[in-house]
Structure formats: C-alpha cells, structure tokens
C-alpha cells in the first residue's frame, strides 16, 4: 500500500512537472489557477520572492491580493499562444479580453515560473504609469 501511494505521488509530480515544463504550459496553468482564485498554485507557478514587496515572506500573496482587478481578470481570461525563449527568460504571446499581451517567465532551478513583478511593470508601461501612479499625459 505504501509503495502504491508513493508511486502515485511520484506520477502526479512528474505529470505536474511535464505539463508545466514550457513557458506556454505554465501560462495555461497560471490562467487556470487565477480563474479558480487558487493562490497556492498561482504562487508555485510564480517566481520566488525577490526585491521590494516580494522580498517579504508574504510578498507574493500580497502582490496577488493587491493586483489590480483588471490585471487579474486579464490573467483569468488568458489564451496562451506562441512562446519565445532566450536563455532563462521567456515571454508567451497571449490574448486576453481581445488584446494581445506578453506574459513574462523566468527559469528557476529548471522550472519555468511566471514573473509577476515584470508582468506588473509591463502593465504600468502599457498604461503610462510608473510605480503605481498615473503618469503625466504628453501634450
């Protein structure tokens, strides 16, 4: 019985790793986790804590919870397309709510992870914001 349980656990781990072994696979799993409001899976698919807010132990959860609802809705609605890999960096061209967007990933310990801080920076640039504040409109 113990062997069976261990075998099933190994098989499930291998299935999870295989399914998410590409940036596109992680992108699809990320969208599913966001749709289900599944923070634990979302966190496992995201980059480890780094600088700033994310350097705190609860940083990724705070980022997830404070993410602008429109950003989260766009992740929930993602249709993941072509991936472009350059070393340990990658982007997946995706569509959401009728708009094209790039979803960034970074490879950590041979696993592709969603790069939430870079995604948020992309969103701020796209909407003319810097550090969470609206930028000045050009005349």
How would you describe the overall organization of this protein?
A hairpin with a 2-residue loop joins strand 3 (99-108) and strand 4. The protein has helices at 2-19, 23-35, 39-44, 59-66, 69-76, 116-126, and strands at 79-86, 89-96, 99-108, 111-114, 129-130, 133-134. The protein is 46% helix and 24% strand. The model is unreliable at 9-19 and 51-57 (pLDDT under 50). With 139 residues, it is of the alpha+beta class. It has one domain (2-127): Nuclear Transport Factor 2, Chain: A. The chain has 6 helices and 6 strands.
Throw out a few tags for this protein.
139 residues, alpha+beta, Nuclear Transport Factor 2, Chain: A, 6 helices, globular
The amount of beta strand, in percent, is 15-25%
Approximate helicity band: 40-55%
- Alpha-carbon Rg, integer: 16 Å
By secondary-structure content and strand pairing, the structural class works out as alpha+beta
Give the overall shape, derived from the CA principal axes: globular
**Number of helical regions:** 6
Topology:
Elements (H helix, E strand, L loop, with lengths): L1 H18 L3 H13 L3 H6 L14 H8 L2 H8 L2 E8 L2 E8 L2 E10 L2 E4 L1 H11 L2 E2 L2 E2 L5
Antiparallel strand pairs: 1-2, 2-3, 3-4, 5-6
Task: Summarize this entry quickly.
With 139 residues, the protein is of the alpha+beta class.
């Amino acid at each position: 019985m113990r062997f069976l349980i261990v075998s099933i656990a190994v098989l499930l781990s291998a299935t999870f790793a295989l399914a998410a072994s590409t940036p596109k696979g992680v992108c699809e799993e990320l969208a599913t986790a966001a749709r289900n409001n599944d923070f634990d899976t979302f966190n496992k698919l995201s980059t480890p804590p780094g600088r700033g807010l994310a350097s705190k132990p609860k940083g990724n959860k705070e980022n997830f919870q404070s993410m602008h609802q429109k950003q989260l809705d766009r992740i929930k609605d993602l249709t993941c397309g072509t991936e472009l890999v350059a070393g340990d960096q990658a982007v997946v061209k995706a569509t959401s709510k009728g708009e094209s967007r790039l979803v960034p990933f970074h490879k950590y310990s041979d696993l592709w992870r969603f790069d939430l801080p870079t995604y948020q920076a992309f969103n701020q640039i796209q909407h003319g914001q810097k550090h969470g504040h609206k930028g000045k409109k050009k005349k």
